[in-house]
User: Which sequence fits this backbone?
């Protein structure tokens, strides 16, 4: 179990090397109740001197035993936060949506400007690979 955990962290460190140039940061979530999980942080306001248009994007990519694949997108703008929950099942989204009021009450000190729930096919590993491999390129270099 320990060697598997270390291998996972090493994998995420290699992924971070690839994502570094795009101001994208990856944080593995080796939490016992998660089958897989990582947090992607995209910071697009570092070059803005007055921080007026500073926005940060966070994406939690989770695989939970009871809920399966789940992604939570968070957009933080100066005015507040937008949340989007994505799952591959309408039933699972309904379950999460039933706790919407609890989410709003127990959130951070920034106001929540919007919250949405969307259904789409998700795969945490495939989503990470899409981020790592530039569009039009493949994982294996077939050119000699």
Assistant:
């Amino acid at each position: 179990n320990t060697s598997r955990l270390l291998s996972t962290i090493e994998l995420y460190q290699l992924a971070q090397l690839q994502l570094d140039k795009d101001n994208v940061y990856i944080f593995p979530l080796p939490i016992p109740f998660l089958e897989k999980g990582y947090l992607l942080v995209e910071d697009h306001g570092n070059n803005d001197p007055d921080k007026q248009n500073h926005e940060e994007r966070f994406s939690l990519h989770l695989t939970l035993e009871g809920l399966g694949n789940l992604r939570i997108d968070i957009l933080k703008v100066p005015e507040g936060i937008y949340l989007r929950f994505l799952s591959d099942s309408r039933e699972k989204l309904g379950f999460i949506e039933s706790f919407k009021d609890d989410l709003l009450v127990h959130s951070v000190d920034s106001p929540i400007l919007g919250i949405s729930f969307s259904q789409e096919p998700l795969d945490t590993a495939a989503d990470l690979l899409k981020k790592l491999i530039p569009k039009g390129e493949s994982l294996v270099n077939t050119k000699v």
